[in-house]
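F.,

This is the one I mentioned.
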């Protein structure tokens, strides 16, 4: 047993679960001590994962289904899950210090980390299913830590993820029947030639979509993003679930099944719908956390689009975007958590002026917002650029590539518009009276340090695209001869952008040394009189500031869109709500059939027996 625990491929899993056991037996009041145990354990997991990443691919073949393998894709997922475990543990030391839920949070966090490491490193589909099921349970438990307000979100998450996990079990069974094996390395060696597509592939897709939060299995994520604890949303829906979902989709699409044009077109259609539908919902949100949750859905569409192209650069772009999204989305949720801690809420209508009093949080949030919007030279631009190239390379298969490319680029533009609204409402406009009364300030270093680290990752992975990201992270994960078309020199582009910013700053400084002309408020082609604006003569100065929140309300009034938004609020596109309605309909039918009349029950029994006899005789 000791030899099994010391096996390098099993050590990350073993250490994480042992750390969780230590947290279980610590006294309940020792919340900070639990956090330190979680932080130390996550660091140890990172230390044990790092040699796997830097070394050659290795395998471990134990008894039964205990087969593990560390190839490029598995190492990328396991390394990132360990990094996020460290950062979220550090952040939670301060965030949860006054919350009783910290007693269980760190235990669940380490369970989740151990199961994630097992899912990434598993070389047997049955073993992957075991860890996958544990992750579904820990997701439910961690969402429920927020109390009664998150109970419905936790139940919805458990049902959606659990139902698709059942489909995954069926898919694994079909693969075993067709090939006689559930070993990933053996299936990959078959070169996908003997595994036909059909039901099995789409069961894998359903499980991946539910975990990652892609349309139409995404509806649990906005509720979790709004109601769960911020460290939970930053670690699971924003980071780990995206990694796991896209990891499974990439495994199925690259190593298990050989996708045809129909399957790839289906994936790209769902990816395009995910991008546009979710970003349109994000535009009208007034709660910062719910807005971020819808963007967490929208960005999955780019990953699905990239993998759906079937090209090397497209798949690499999808995997790279999986990595980038986990970084900047986690940073954004951590920033929202800092705002919530200092102001008591994340309602954009009631925020403002936070850039002045929370400059570090503002800086981290700004970098992550630009990254998710695809602003060069950050990492989000680099991965989206690769996805665009992958889409263009499918031009020989028909004209639908124009639709997929247009959806991807429009989604990026709308994402930028949405974050202009969020940044202005929370950080840049005049502070509301409620915010001034709360007297917010920069949170502790344990909260802003993880944000700045993630923001630096956004910069480093974008600027170092050709020297760091592609050769060290992406090429080993996709095992392909990756070659980018076009020209994108990240280093010189960064230098030119910094030079332009420096020139603008220089002009601003020179302007301050001279005389600055001041004038009244200019609005609608008119300059309001200083008497009216200053409130002289008994009149109170009106609030003439046009907020981003108010401006984006007009989107809901556009012809056609207003009705679609109304349908969305009523659950017309929510498979969970539709399922509840259907179940309720059949329940009412059964209730109507159970009238309490003995003759009716005897008739049902006879009808059932006749049906069974008919099936048996056939």
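My design for it:
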């Amino acid at each position: 047993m000791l030899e099994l625990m010391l096996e390098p491929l099993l050590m990350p899993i073993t250490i994480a679960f042992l750390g969780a056991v230590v947290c279980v037996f610590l006294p309940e009041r020792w919340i900070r001590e639990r956090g330190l145990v979680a932080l130390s354990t996550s660091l140890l997991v990172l230390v044990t994962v790092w040699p796997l990443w830097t070394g050659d691919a290795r395998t471990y073949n134990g008894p039964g289904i205990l087969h593990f393998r560390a190839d490029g894709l598995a190492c990328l997922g396991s390394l990132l899950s360990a990094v996020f475990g460290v950062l979220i543990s550090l952040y939670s030391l301060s965030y949860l210090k006054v919350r009783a839920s910290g007693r269980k949070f760190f235990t669940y966090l380490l369970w989740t980390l151990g199961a994630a490491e097992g899912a990434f490193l598993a070389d047997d589909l049955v073993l992957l299913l075991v860890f996958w099921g544990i992750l579904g349970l820990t997701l439910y438990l961690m969402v429920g830590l927020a109390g009664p307000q998150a109970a419905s979100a936790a139940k919805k998450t458990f049902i959606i993820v659990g139902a698709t996990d059942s489909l995954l079990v069926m898919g694994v069974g079909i693969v075993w029947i067709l090939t006689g094996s559930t070993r990933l390395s053996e299936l990959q060696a078959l070169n996908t030639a003997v595994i036909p597509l059909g039901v099995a592939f789409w069961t894998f897709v359903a499980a991946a979509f539910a975990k990652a939060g892609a349309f139409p299995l995404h509806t649990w994520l906005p509720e979790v993003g709004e109601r769960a604890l911020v460290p939970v949303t930053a670690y699971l829906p924003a980071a780990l679930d995206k990694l796991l979902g896209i990891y499974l989709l990439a495994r199925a699409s690259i190593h298990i099944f050989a996708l045809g044009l129909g399957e790839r077109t289906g994936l790209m259609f769902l990816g395009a719908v995910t991008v546009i539908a979710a970003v349109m919902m994000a535009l009208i949100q007034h709660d910062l956390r719910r807005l971020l949750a819808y963007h967490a859905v929208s960005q999955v569409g780019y990953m699905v689009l990239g993998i759906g192209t079937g090209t090397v650069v497209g798949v690499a772009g999808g995997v790279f975007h999986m990595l980038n999204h986990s970084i900047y989305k986690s940073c954004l949720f951590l920033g929202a958590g800092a705002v919530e801690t200092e102001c008591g809420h994340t309602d954009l209508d009631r925020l403002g002026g936070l850039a002045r009093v929370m400059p570090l949080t503002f800086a981290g949030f700004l970098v992550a917002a630009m990254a998710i919007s695809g602003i060069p030279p950050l990492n989000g631009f680099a991965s989206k650029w690769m996805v665009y190239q992958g889409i263009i390379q499918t031009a020989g298969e028909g004209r639908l590539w124009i639709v997929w490319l247009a959806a991807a680029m429009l989604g990026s533009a709308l994402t930028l518009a949405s974050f202009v609204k969020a940044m202005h409402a929370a950080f840049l406009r005049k502070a509301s009276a409620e915010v001034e009364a709360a007297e917010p300030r920069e949170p502790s270093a344990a909260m802003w340090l993880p944000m700045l680290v993630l923001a630096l990752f956004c910069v480093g992975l974008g600027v170092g695209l050709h020297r760091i990201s592609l050769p060290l992270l992406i090429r080993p994960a996709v095992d392909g001869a990756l070659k980018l078309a076009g020209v994108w020199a990240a280093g010189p582009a960064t230098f030119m952008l910094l030079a332009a910013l420096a020139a603008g700053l220089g002009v601003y400084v020179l302007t301050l040394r001279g005389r600055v002309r001041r004038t009244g408020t200019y609005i609608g082609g008119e300059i309001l009189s200083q008497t009216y604006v200053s409130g002289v003569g008994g009149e109170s100065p009106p609030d003439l500031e046009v907020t981003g929140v108010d401006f984006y309300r007009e989107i809901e009034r556009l012809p056609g869109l207003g009705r679609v938004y109304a349908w969305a609020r009523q659950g017309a596109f929510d498979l969970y709500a539709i399922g509840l309605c259907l179940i309720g309909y059949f329940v009412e039918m059964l209730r109507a059939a159970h009238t309490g009349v003995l003759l009716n029950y005897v008739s049902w029994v006879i009808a059932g027996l006749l049906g069974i006899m008919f099936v048996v005789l056939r």
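The chain is about 75% helix and 0% strand.

Talk soon.
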